Amino acid sequence: MSKYKTKVVSTGRFIPDKILTNDDLSKMVDTSDEWIYTRTGIKTRRIADESVLELAYLAGLDAIKKGNVDKNDIDLIVVATITAEQKTPSIANMVQKKLEIENTQVMTFDLNAACTGFVYALEVASALVQTNFNKALVIGVEKMTNVVDFTDRNTCILFGDAAGAMIIEKGNDDIFFYNDSKGDLTDLLTVDDKIHMDGRKVYQFAVDIIPKSINRVLEENNLTLDEIDYIIPHQANVRIIDSFIKTLNLDRDKVLINIDKYGNTSAASIPVAIDEYKDDNANSVKNVLIVGFGGGFTWGAAIIKI
User: What is the CATH number that goes with domain 1-306?
Assistant: First the structure.
């Protein structure tokens, strides 16, 4: 459990133009719009012609523009992704080049925690800006179509492509984190060349760990759900979201859900949802709880003011 003094400067996102509908998928595998929607809550997902680098760059650029940030004030770039087309240089390193940041000293690296990646990356960046860094650009980006097997109807219906970004600096707002992992469950959700998932066991794990993560980050920081204005979960499956809503006796209107539009975009899902929330609440500062889980397993939650 960690707490830092951090300010969210701005957020951004990039959503690819190309849409893949459930009806489109029904022409590729044995499925239907009704079958997909009733089991996942997904109607459409986005398919990127852009590379992972381009997605990350465009989301970062959006955050820079929205925050009116001098890009040369950014001296830390952390990118959460599992779908980069090459092993090195890192996406973060190439984002620095593409943004033409001319700072004399910039630290860049990628982070792999699957769908929990953005929560992990945000904690790492929050810790580092407490030291001698000025502004951090944190990006969650996935081109899941790089690793989806479009002959496997159990997984190809779930995933899409997107990128979300956040710029932070040291500030006066408390940001709370709880991040955790369990490394002996690696066979349940893996990506080598393509994604492989035991959907039933992943679901069972998720509906257990998400409410536990929410309660843990609240309890260890002496907070209650009543003090949280909004919950933004990883968008994996609407049944998982509905399950923790029921477990915690939440008002569904208090939980942001956009999986119907984008599907599961892994490390991008939380920052994309945060930026959509910011667009709708531009003139207010709220306590927002983000929570995610991913392959490994990894899981985590954070409470931030955005």
Answer: 3.40.47.10
